[in-house]
Design goal:
The complex is a heterodimer of chains A (446) and B (168). Chain A is an all-alpha fold and 446 residues long. Chain A has helices at 3-43, 54-67, 80-97, 114-123, 126-134, 142-170, 175-185, 189-192, 194-208, 214-223, 226-234, 241-257, 284-300, 306-328, 334-363, 370-400, 405-435. Helices cover 76% and strands 0% of the residues of chain B. Chain B is built from six helices and no strands. Chain B has helices spanning 2-24, 28-48, 52-77, 90-112, 129-140, 142-163.
């Protein structure tokens, strides 16, 4: 066999996998945008801008992607750097996704330092913002560079510390081993380290939220942030493609470390339908899909907006197809069943996390730049560190001294919460005295 | 295995070419980005040797930290450097001579030992080498590791002292 053909054979599966991941990310981007638009509409209806039907969204996505082929909005210091700036944050997100597992055997790369890799690769996205601001047509964007880098670094530290509480419980940095540890211990780590999950969510919300809101875009434009500009130019709903992809990665990490990855709820409960090898709980995904299909179809009949009605019917059809696949695979070999249902649960958990994330983000007011940074260093990072120590101590107490799981978890979470509340109250007091001088005049707050 | 060799050739070619391009470019930002490319390609070779932790550290520390710092400092301190590349000066000569000497040393080292086995083969690498490395750093050689962290701590304290606001 010619050498070229062997090489092709060696890499064919990997190339297909990579293509599948990119396809999944593109669909995920559309879903994130739809979800974000829907949630912010629930909060503040914008009847004039209801244009989120599927063809329009796909066209916008195509235009946004097309724009990555060109140099964007710059003083033209050559073609290469602006191009790199525009693709860096999206490309780094796609690379980071390679190490996440969608099922027991569905992954592109099973690294034994997988979590560090995901963090490192997604951190490279910062080059997008840095280079873009550096070459922006707007002057005065240098402060924006420093702000952006500082914000990202601060909240990445806090999020990493929160995530490590899950790593300590799992005893590994490998994605697969963390999920298997959750199967062995009989509980998802969100129940063993609840405070860790909350801190992770909080730091992710604070860290991703530079340009994503419509209200912030104008400020961001003054800083010359290229992604905001592309968002404005190409009307991509969720702020920027880069922010959307990094939200998807954050969701994947949270689902893996805190949400049990591809495990179904009650994964160690094995009861079968009488006389068949089909497990009772494996009927949940098809049931959920069929319920969703029927509900969406029913809901579509009340919808007045034509585009949105079409979209709902398409989604209902997708759910029906999903129902067929999830049911059919129940009678397939166990490996196929585990793979398909694992992927279903993983994506469902990611979707739940993203919904919660966007819901919370839409309801939290926007703060001036210095406040979130103060919150990160004075509050989130110390509390995450204390939480990490408490979770580790609870693990030792359970395994070495035979404490009850519930008692150790309550104690650990309680200590973490108490310290968090103390730090929070202290910070509020400091901010007040810091903002006023002795005569009660307002002083500049850093 | 043919694919693996091809991949190595590809990564090595990228690393060498971008390193060469980096030292020949006048534009400081192009240089920084080419350095980034070199580091990423080297990281890819680490990954191919199944040194996954070294790969991730390469991404996080060198690509994500140090080169980013170069880019930021270049942008903050020398915004004009983009359009007015540095003029010729004698320091270039000194630096080039130094690099040449080091390069000759490295080549001589390899030449002297070209038949010896410099590197363990991939098969000799333990499967869970991240864990092995963790054991070595935090269990077997903990004192040495902690001593090595003292300069880092001193640096951090120094930076804090320098950046501290003067209160009088």
């Amino acid at each position: 066999m010619p050498a070229a053909l062997t090489i092709l054979e060696e890499f064919a599966i990997d190339v297909l996998d990579a293509a599948a991941i990119v396809g999944f990310l593109l669909i995920g981007l559309v879903c994130v945008a739809l979800m974000d638009r829907r949630i912010s509409e629930d909060l503040a209806p914008q009847p004039a801008r209801r244009t989120e039907n599927l063809p329009v969204l796909l066209e916008r996505l195509a235009r946004a992607l097309q724009s990555y082929g060109r140099g964007l909005l710059t003083e033209n210091p050559g073609r290469f750097l602006p191009w790199l700036a525009s693709i860096a944050s999206v490309a780094s997100g796609i690379i980071a996704f390679a190490a996440l597992s969608f099922g027991p055997a569905i992954h592109l790369a099973n690294l034994n330092a997988g979590l560090i890799f995901i963090f490192a690769a997604s951190f490279l996205g910062i080059y997008g913002g840095v280079l873009a601001r550096g070459f922006s047509v707007f002057s005065g964007s240098l402060a924006g560079i420093a702000r952006n880098a500082m914000r990202l670094a601060s909240f990445e530290v806090a999020a990493a510390l929160a995530l490590i509480s899950g790593v300590v419980l799992g005893g590994s940095l490998s994605v697969g081993q963390i999920v298997n540890a959750q199967l062995d211990q009989g509980a998802w780590f969100i129940f063993l380290a609840p405070l860790g999950f909350v801190l992770y969510l909080a730091s992710s919300i604070a860290g991703i939220d530079t340009v994503a809101r419509p209200s912030v875009r104008r400020v961001a434009q003054a800083d010359g942030y290229i992604e905001a500009e592309t968002a404005e130019k190409f009307r991509w709903p969720f702020g920027s493609l880069g922010a959307s992809i990094h939200l998807l990665i954050g969701a994947g990490l949270a689902a893996t470390v805190f949400g049990g990855g591809w495990l179904r709820p009650f994964a160690s409960y094995h009861d079968h339908f009488a006389g068949t090898p089909v497990e009772l709980l494996d009927a949940l995904p098809p049931l959920a899909a069929s319920a969703m299909a029927v509900y969406l179809f029913w809901l579509a009949s009340f919808e007045k907006d034509n585009g949105r009605r079409q979209l709902m019917k398409v989604a209902s059809g997708v759910c029906a197809a999903l129902f067929a696949i999830l049911t059919g695979v129940l009678f397939a070999p166990p490996a196929a069943l585990a793979a398909v249902h694992g992927a279903f649960w993983f994506v469902a958990k990611m979707a739940a996390y993203i919904y919660g994330f966007l819901w919370l983000r839409a309801r939290i007011p926007q703060f001036r730049f210095g406040r979130p940074i103060r919150a990160a260093w004075n509050f989130l990072i110390p509390v995450s560190a204390v939480n990490l120590v408490c979770v580790a101590a609870a693990l030792v107490a359970r395994e070495q001294w035979n404490w009850s799981p519930a008692g150790s978890i309550f104690l650990a979470t309680g200590i973490g919460l108490a310290i968090g509340i103390w730090l929070g109250l202290r910070d509020i007091g400091e901010t007040r005295t810091y903002g006023m001088d002795a005569d009660g005049r307002q002083q500049p707050i850093v | 295995m043919a694919g693996n060799n091809l991949l190595f050739d590809f990564l090595a070619a990228i690393a060498a070419a971008s390193a060469l391009a980096m030292i020949t470019r006048r534009n400081i930002f192009h240089g920084a980005i080419l350095l980034l490319a070199t580091l990423l390609a080297t990281g890819g070779i680490f990954l191919q040797l199944q040194a996954e932790y070294a790969f991730a550290a390469q991404l996080l520390l060198f690509a994500g930290g140090i080169v980013l710092l170069f880019v930021l400092v270049a942008m903050l301190l020398a915004p004009g450097a983009l359009h007015h590349p540095a003029r010729f000066n004698w320091r270039m000569f000194a630096a080039s001579a130094l690099v040449l000497v080091v390069a000759i040393e490295i080549l001589a080292f390899f030449w002297a030992r070209h038949d010896a086995t410099l590197w363990p083969s991939v098969a000799a690498m333990p499967p869970n080498n991240t864990g092995t490395m963790g054991d070595a750093l935090f269990r077997d050689d903990l004192p040495a590791f902690e001593f090595a962290s003292i300069p880092l701590l001193a640096t951090i304290i120094g930076v804090v002292m320098l950046a501290k606001r003067r209160t009088e």
